[in-house]
User: Which sequence fits this backbone?
């Protein structure tokens, strides 16, 4: 496959999330974990994603509906922008990447699980002196710090998800916020909760943590003992009837009225697509000559 000119290691470093056991025991996350989520900007919308490394291959994982319109099945935009924070949380600069999604789709470098709302694209291959990005992926700005990339073995199968275990969700739920000066929309947010339930028929995970617009595609990690593992991605919130709104005021003539509109609110529960789908999609990509495929963690 044709590759672009590689970036030097000094220009773009790759780091792996390795939390300290002491921090985990105290149930909080090291600051550099806030560099985990990648902001995905699509005209008129967007969401969150994160990088996964299988040997030397780097993939971007997100929710399918962030990239594709659910009604038409078409790409929301031919191009999108990624903003990846630096591992050094004190650094304001981010790595900015332009992605020609149409070119990647044509080259079959985007794989999707429509039923479970997951999308994976091949981002780059790690080489000795940097990265060979997939054709259609171009860095336009680079931070000085490292980008955090999760190893493939951190993806935890559905069977290892435990009800009531503590979870953390990373993402950019601030997309669309313009009148909230308290929130820095350039920074990701983390939200904590628990695994509230499992749906074996659908292979989904219910978490007791609200998912808002912009969270979609963000990683959800489970805290189990002294380990943090990715159990899936945020896909949607569970709606709940919030109010009944008539279409127009009632009149005294006794004329028939149209049915009322039921306004749906956020119940506070979120739906997570399990990591099984991510594992399966990454496994469909043929390996490059520079690396071999890892076996899924058992």
Assistant:
């Amino acid at each position: 496959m044709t590759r672009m000119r590689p970036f030097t290691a000094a220009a773009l470093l790759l780091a792996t999330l390795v939390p300290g056991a002491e921090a985990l025991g105290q149930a909080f996350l090291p600051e550099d974990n806030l560099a985990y989520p990648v902001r995905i900007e699509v005209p008129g919308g967007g969401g969150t994603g994160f990088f996964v490394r299988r040997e030397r291959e780097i993939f971007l994982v997100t929710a399918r509906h962030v990239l594709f319109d659910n009604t038409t099945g078409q790409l929301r935009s031919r191009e999108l922008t990624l903003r990846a924070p630096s591992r050094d949380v004190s650094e304001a600069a981010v790595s900015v990447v332009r992605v020609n999604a149409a070119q990647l789709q044509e080259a079959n470098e985007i794989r999707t699980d429509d039923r479970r709302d997951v999308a994976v694209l091949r981002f780059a291959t790690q080489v000795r002196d940097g990265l060979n990005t997939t054709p259609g992926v171009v860095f336009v700005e680079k931070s000085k710090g490292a980008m955090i990339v999760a190893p493939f073995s951190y993806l935890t199968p559905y069977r290892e998800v435990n009800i009531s275990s503590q979870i953390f969700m990373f993402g950019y739920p601030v997309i669309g916020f313009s009148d909230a000066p308290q929130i820095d929309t350039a920074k990701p947010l983390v939200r904590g909760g628990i695994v509230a339930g499992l749906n074996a028929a659908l292979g989904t995970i219910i978490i007791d943590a609200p998912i808002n617009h912009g969270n979609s595609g963000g990683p959800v990690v489970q805290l189990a003992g002294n380990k943090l593992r990715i159990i899936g991605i945020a896909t949607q919130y569970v709606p709940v009837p919030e109010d009944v709104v008539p279409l127009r005021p009632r009149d005294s003539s006794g004329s028939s009225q149209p049915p009322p509109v039921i306004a749906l609110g956020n119940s506070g529960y979120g739906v997570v697509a399990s990591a099984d789908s991510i594992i399966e999609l990454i496994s469909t990509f043929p390996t490059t000559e520079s690396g071999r495929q890892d076996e899924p963690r058992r």
